[in-house]
Design a protein that fits this description.
By secondary structure, the protein is α+β, with helices and mostly antiparallel strands. The protein has a single domain, classed as YaeB-like fold, CATH 3.30.2310. It has a five-stranded mixed beta sheet. The radius of gyration is 11 Å and the shape is globular.
Amino acid sequence: MRIEYSSHVQEKMQSRAVLLVELLDTVFLPDIIRKRKGQYFAQRKLERGTLRVVYEASTTHIKVITLYWM
């Protein structure tokens, strides 16, 4: 499955010190996942806090919208 991130997401990863492996773990191995208006909200508790990743998914790819620490 292809993962697509915008320049916005790349900027947020850098400014919030989120590693790619943390983003991928949150999307593919979430502790909690909710769906609202076609978007998924995946949460995962990590050593540094709880990361939330918002994304849209289709059968062929995942488009990451944004991410933030909670």
